[in-house]
């Protein structure tokens, strides 16, 4: 048994034993669970993939004369301005003004909110165009300027839903191509897409949220971020395997972090033909090895994590609840799976290579003593389901 | 027998001559066209694999050059930008020749083999990060 204080003291003295969630598997196999639990202080987890529910609060500073910005665009992408005078929220999936979307199907969606966020983090200039109705105290009604992230007073990434615990595998049973947020799905189950870092993924290594909770320090694209709330659609009550690992999407995290500290390599705009734009993000979360049970959960391996294959031509859009089959991440990572006697090629929306890189970077930071762990100030809900939207007709 | 990947650039004036026909008929070359755009209004291009004996290949190319056609033997029509690639692997099922593939199952990094690329351009449409680009 260790406490957060003891682990942080070891980190500060530069003596913490830190492994990533892939390395820990063999380590525990070799050393045994109890011995390893005493030796290892921290296991680092990570993920890198499209996280649509991401965005940032920006404060532009006040112009002379002042302006109560009511509509704002950054590189022609609208940022929501229904908050205080020169604050705005730029969302990852916001399309560029005049983007024809799917008018000429399938749309290309070359540039949007996620790309503006990538440019800001990379330090590139973006154009701000703002409109207002004008007031006595904020008379300016229009402005156009160029700015970089350094010009902003604050740029705080605030993501209501990141790090899905597990995720659907998308396939297409129909006889036409289907364009989805998991990429193009060819007809008649020729390919499928999964989206999880599996054995490296944060919430799969802490299936019941013992150490990851509200207030947990996270590595958010290189910045020191934190879990500020349960993520939207957090639904821990679900089908779980014998190891407690969810077989469905399950938990999510609300994350925030200072965008000025982020590295552009881990903040990348995403274009999905026929679907839209998004943002791919890198997240790392350290797990303190408080006891053998916490450690055991981090030894979960790809073959023990199952994901449900869902038909995105019908079952997903129409919410039929039908599942084609379940596959393990070990099977998925082979590149080809057999479903109903048919060979199906496998693609992914989540980068294991980048997740591994981030887990390594975070482990280095913890080893160097520059990343301390924080106990959750409140746990994430462990029992909760997601409600559908009831569309009621007028009585 | 050798196979070479070639890129031919056609000037405006040479779009009506059946050059490929002569490569096959007169020089006994096996031709596999990956992509082509040859119109009378503008410069055209042809990306193809040509298989034959060294001697026939040499003579065939000499014949082609005689039409003021520029031959590029080193060009790659599709490029992959390693800095833009995040190694997600979304391209893998869309690449028919596995020119884009996971090189090492341990690191799971995606690598591009230009020699295996047939320039179908599926990756261009599919890559969420715009890592693949076409010369044309």
Structure description:
- The complex is a heterodimer of chains A (395) and B (136).
- By secondary structure, chain A is α+β, with helices and mostly antiparallel strands.
- Chain A has 2 domains: 4-52 and 158-368, no CATH class; 58-152, no CATH class.
- Chain A has helices at residues 4-12, 23-31, 33-39, 113-121, 292-298, 329-332, 352-368, and strands spanning 18-20, 42-50, 55-59, 71-74, 77-79, 87-91, 126-131, 142-147, 154-162, 169-171, 178-180, 183-185, 191-194, 217-220, 223-230, 253-258, 267-272, 276-288, 306-311, 325-328, 336-339, 342-348.
- In chain A, helix 2 crosses helix 3.
- The longest helix of chain A is centred in the C-terminal third of the chain and has 17 residues, at 352-368.
- In chain A, 50% of the residues are buried.
- The mean pLDDT of chain A is 98.
- The chains are: A alpha+beta (395), B alpha+beta (136).
- Chains A and B meet through strand 2, strand 13, strand 17, strand 22 and helix 7 of A and loops of B.
Q: In summary, what is this structure?
A:
The complex is a heterodimer of chains A (about 400) and B (about 140). Helix content of chain A is about 15%, strand content about 30%. With about 400 residues, chain A is α+β, with helices and mostly antiparallel strands.
* Whole-angstrom Rg of chain B: 17 Å
Give average pLDDT of chain A, whole number.
98
Order of helices and strands of chain A: HEHHEEEEEHEEEEEEEEEEEEHEEHEEH
The tally of domains of chain B stands at: 2
Highest CATH level, the class of the largest domain in chain B: Alpha Beta
Mean pLDDT of chain B: 90
Largest sheet properties of chain B: 4 strands, antiparallel
Strand content of chain B: 25-35%
The helix content of chain B, as a percent range, equals 10-25%
Question: Quick one: how many beta strands of chain B?
Answer: 8
Order of helices and strands of chain B: EHEEHEEEEHE
Which characteristics define this entry?
heterodimer; A: 395 residues; alpha+beta; 10-stranded mixed sheet; 6-stranded mixed sheet; 22 strands; 16% helix; 31% strand; B: 136 residues; Alpha-Beta Plaits; two-stranded antiparallel ribbon; 19% helix
């Amino acid at each position: 048994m260790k406490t957060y204080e003891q682990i942080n003291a070891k980190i500060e003295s530069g003596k913490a034993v830190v492994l990533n969630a892939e390395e820990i598997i063999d380590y525990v196999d070799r050393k045994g669970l109890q011995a390893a639990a005493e030796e290892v202080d921290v296991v680092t987890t990570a993920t890198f993939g499209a996280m649509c529910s991401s965005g940032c609060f920006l404060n532009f500073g006040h112009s002379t004369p002042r302006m109560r910005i009511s509509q704002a665009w950054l590189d022609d992408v609208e940022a929501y301005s229904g908050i205080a005078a020169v604050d705005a929220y730029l969302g990852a999936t916001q399309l560029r003004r005049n983007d024809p979307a799917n008018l000429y199907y399938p749309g290309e969606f070359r540039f949007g909110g996620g790309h503006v966020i990538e440019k800001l983090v990379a330090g590139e200039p973006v154009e701000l165009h703002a409109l207002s109705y004008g007031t006595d105290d904020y008379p300016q009604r229009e402005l156009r300027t160029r700015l970089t992230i350094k010009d902003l007073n604050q740029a705080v990434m605030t993501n209501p839903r990141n790090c899905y615990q597990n995720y659907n595998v998308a396939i297409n049973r129909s006889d036409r191509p289907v364009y989805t947020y998991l990429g193009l799905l060819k007809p008649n189950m020729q390919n499928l897409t999964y989206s999880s870092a599996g054995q490296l993924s944060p919430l799969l290594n802490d299936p019941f949220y013992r150490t990851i909770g509200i207030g947990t320090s996270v590595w958010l694209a290189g910045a020191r971020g934190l879990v500020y709330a349960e993520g939207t659609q957090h639904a821990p009550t679900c089908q779980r395997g014998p190891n407690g690992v969810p077989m469905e999407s399950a938990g999510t995290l609300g994350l925030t972090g200072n965008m000025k500290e982020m590295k552009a390599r881990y903040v990348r705009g995403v274009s999905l033909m026929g679907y839209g734009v998004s943002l791919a993000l890198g997240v790392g979360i350290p797990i303190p090895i408080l006891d053998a049970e916490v450690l055991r959960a981090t030894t979960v391996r790809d073959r023990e994590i199952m994901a449900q294959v869902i038909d995105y031509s019908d079952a997903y859009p129409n919410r039929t609840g039908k599942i084609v089959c379940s596959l393990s991440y070990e099977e998925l990572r082979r590149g080809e799976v057999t479903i109903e006697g048919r060979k199906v090629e496998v693609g992914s929306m989540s980068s294991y290579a980048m997740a591994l890189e981030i887990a390594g970077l975070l482990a280095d930071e913890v080893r160097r003593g520059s990343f301390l762990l924080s106990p959750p100030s409140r746990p994430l809900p462990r029992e909760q389901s997601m409600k559908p939207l009831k569309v009621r007709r007028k009585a | 027998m050798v196979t070479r990947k070639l890129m031919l650039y056609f000037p405006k004036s040479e779009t009506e001559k059946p050059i490929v026909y002569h490569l096959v008929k007169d020089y006994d070359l096996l031709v596999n066209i990956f992509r082509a755009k040859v119109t009378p209004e503008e410069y055209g291009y042809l990306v193809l694999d040509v298989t034959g004996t060294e001697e026939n290949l040499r003579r065939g190319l000499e014949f082609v050059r005689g039409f003021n056609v520029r031959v590029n033997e080193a060009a790659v029509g599709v490029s992959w930008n390693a800095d833009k690639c995040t190694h997600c692997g979304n391209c893998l099922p869309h690449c028919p020749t596995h020119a884009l593939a996971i090189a090492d199952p341990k690191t799971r990094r995606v690598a591009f083999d230009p020699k295996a690329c047939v320039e179908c351009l599926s990756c261009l449409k599919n890559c969420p990060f715009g890592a693949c680009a076409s010369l044309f």
